[in-house]
Amino acid sequence: MAKTIYLGNPNLKRQNVEIDYTQEQIEEFIKCRDNPSYFIKNYIHIVNLDEGLIKFDLYPFQEELVKTLYTTRFTIVKCPRQSGKSQTSLAFMLHYVLFNDQRQVAILANKSATSRELLGRLQMAYERLPYFLQQGVMEWNKGSIVLENGSRIMAGSTSSSSIRGYSFNLIFLDEFAFVQQGMAEDFFRSVYPTISSGKDSKVIIVSTPNGMNHFYKMWSDAVDGRNTYKPFEINWWDVPGRDSAWKEETINNTSEEQFKQEFECEFLGSAGTLISPAKLHALVIKDPLHTKDNLKVYEETIENHAYFIAVDVAEGRGQDYSSMSVIDITNLPFTQVATYKSNEISPLLFPNYIMQVAMAYNDATCIVESNGPGAEVANILHYDLEYDNTINESGVYNKLGRKMTSRIKGIGCSNLKDLLEHDKLVVNDMATISELSMFVTKGKSWAAEGGGHDDMVMGLVMFSWVATQPEFKELTDMELRLKLYANKIHEIEEDLTPFGFIDSGDDSDDYVVEGGEVWQVSHESMRF
Length: 528
What we know:
With 528 residues, the protein is of the alpha/beta class. It folds into 3 domains: 21-262, P-loop containing nucleotide triphosphate hydrolases (Rossmann fold, 3-Layer(aba) Sandwich); 277-475, Nucleotidyltransferase, domain 5; 480-526, no CATH class. 36% of the residues lie in helices and 21% in strands. The protein has 17 helices and 24 strands. Strands 7-8-9-6-10-11-5-12 form an 8-stranded mixed beta sheet, sandwiched between helices. Strands 13, 14, 15, 16, 17, 18 and 19 form a 7-stranded mixed beta sheet that branches. A 3-stranded antiparallel beta sheet has the order 22-23-24, with no helix packed on it. α1 crosses α2 (36-43) and α11 (350-360) crosses α12. The protein starts with a strand and ends in a 7-residue tail after the last strand. Residues 496-504 and 508-528 have low confidence and may be disordered.
């Protein structure tokens, strides 16, 4: 017996163990290989809160989910809490590595501890399989298992670096809506190329909604056919034992808002948001035309259009984000046409980037929130780079930024609510909409819920405050802008191409200065 078990664990078969299969075992092996649901219902064990260790008797919706995972490459699952979606996915993954050679699987969650706990559940189910269904074990620890058929399962966090350098046939993303916004985007930029390179590789995304974030975007795109993920929705009433009486009891013990998010799977975000839930639902996330160096462009520059840039500044140390929203203010509704967001750019380098974007958008007017490092950015932008088209403390141009005070924030939040809810401002950016879904009342003010970020929102708050100021009318006055533009061109022409006569002081020929060159002019040629 000792020669057949792995490291003293009697529940695990080591590699290179020969088994004399009976005819019945051969038939069972084939049934299990060809039918994942049959394998799960007859051989997978789970821990039930009430009954302890039991066979996994799949509910109808779970059996349908297994079929979907088996036949589909890319699956995204929106589901309520405690619906068994993770356990169902783990059971399918166990079937996947047992009956396919050389398969690499990653179990990923927002925290490494969570992914390891999921792997632990899969290992528990594996240990209860009969030897004739097991593959010999080559490696078995809290972070990974390796089987003698060359298949491997590893656990990690959903970050861009956790599985960099690996190639996977299947990636499972658990509770993906709870991964930080920037991390979710970085993860897919880093990992998706390794998935798309295979013809039968799979991605399984399961989550309960958590506001309007990257999961919301992927789910909406799947439902509308804008990506190739197959949407699979689980409703709270699909779980046996959950009826109207259960719903009423759950709401009484928690809250209606919590029930809507965690069991009815609404993408509500937080309760008490600045923007009404109905309006948040109506906001449409737009894919950028192109993205480079954290700048997302949704609309290219249009000649003679007026643009405004709201800037929020952070330390650039990997925590809060420095951000920009570029807004077309030519006509109502105002439109967010480009965004920038980075938590790594230094305040010393940020002004150069702001000016590049501003100049690309017709010398856009900028306002820099000058609290903390923002004051340094405003100074560099104005004094060192000599970018004049900025707003200062008193609301006039060509000076420094504007400090965010409680009064300005209050006015800005109020006007932002009005602009969005009355369709006077179009927001296209996913990160901005995600932050809006978590921007909630905090005492007498507004801020991101919990440990979230509101850097993009605060830029819009500053813009919304500016939109209430008298000077803003000048920015949106087309006739005035064209006059100012014509005057500016005239000044430039005068500076670059001076024209005039040089009188020689006698009757001899005079000289004309034009375009930096001197031309002799005969008096005879000037007589009429």
